[in-house]
């Protein structure tokens, strides 16, 4: 969708498909699924190097977003931000709760589904916005704002489960 919206020209399937197929996040996810499905694993030496690096992924992503943070961008879009944040942080977890109830799930499965739905926007959205020509400062502000709001909404959503 981002590749379609950002493009100023007539939408052509070839460039959009190329943007999807060469996206490092999509490629990494597909390789990860393949790697996990076939239970390939790593050599112990390589695993000992990759483990600390993987632990740094989230803090580095948040630092990247913080470096691009401009709160003025969030003030410009305060009403759309509040609507989007409300939908993402409040409505989506309630939808997840309803769907788990419809499927007859209970206990830990419901809690995990609601918790995953209640998480703020991923920091990779900022990287995608920068790479694909989107409004990166606004995306950084949205991520930061949702992360701050999630400190209230996640306990609220999990409180509904107990």
Order of helices and strands: HHHHHHHHHH
Give average pLDDT, whole number.
82
* Count of discrete alpha- or pi-helical segments spanning 4 or more residues: 10
Distance from first to last alpha carbon = 37 Å
Number of domains: 2
Instruction: Please indicate the percent range of residues in DSSP E strands (runs of 2 or more).
Output: under 5%
Number of strands: 0
- Gross morphology is globular
- Derived structural class: mainly alpha
**Poorly predicted runs:** none
What is the CA-based Rg, rounded? Answer: 19 Å
Largest sheet: none
Helix percentage range: over 70%
Structural description of this entry:
- The protein has 162 residues and is mainly α.
- The protein has 2 domains: 1-41, no CATH class; 49-161, no CATH class.
- The chain has helices spanning 2-6, 13-21, 24-37, 44-55, 57-67, 71-76, 78-102, 108-118, 124-131, 136-161.
- α7 (78-102) packs antiparallel against α8, α7 packs parallel to α10 and α9 packs antiparallel against α10 (136-161).
- It is globular.
- The mean pLDDT is 82.
